[in-house]
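Researcher: Following up on the earlier apo prediction. This time include the ligand. It's calcium ion, with the SMILES given after the sequence.
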Amino acid sequence: MNQVLSPATWPWVPGQTYYVLFLNTSGADQPVTFTMDGKNAQTEDEDNDGLPDAWEMKYFGNTWQYNDPLAEPNRDGVSLLMAYALNLDPTRNQAGSMPQVVRTGNQMSITFYSGTPGITYTVEASSDMLNWSTNGVMISDPDTNHFRTATVPMTGLNRFLRLRVSR
Ligand SMILES: [Ca+2]
Ligand SMILES: [Ca+2]
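Model: Understood. Below is the ligand-bound prediction.
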């Protein structure tokens, strides 16, 4: 039943009932563990690489080609995980599509897509690019297109913002 996600073999059909058979052929009592992990066709990650298999299939036609969320196959500086999180096509050069820091008066802000299921978005600020913290970072609620804006007050001479995504 636990099959690799592909259009031909994906076993779960909506509205159908499925049965599980446990067969012990050892002749002795054996422990059984059965886990329903709640993943669906959109979030299943059968190769366990941190990239949803449906997303890998959509852009690369397979799940085996890339297994490192931090890889940048087209060397555009945008990792696969970042492309997934920001709803960007990982097969294109996305260097120019990354969220930009904007300075307005006494504030700096960055606006980013935040609507990918299972992704945690964190915006951190720093004055030296060594020590990063969410202290003082205010993040708006998502708008109707799932974009959020993080804002920090300008303090001191240097101020940096970064967006981190994780699963
Ligand atoms: Ca995967
Ligand atoms: Ca993979």
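Model: The chain has a mean pLDDT of 89.
Researcher: Noted. I'll compare it with the apo version next.
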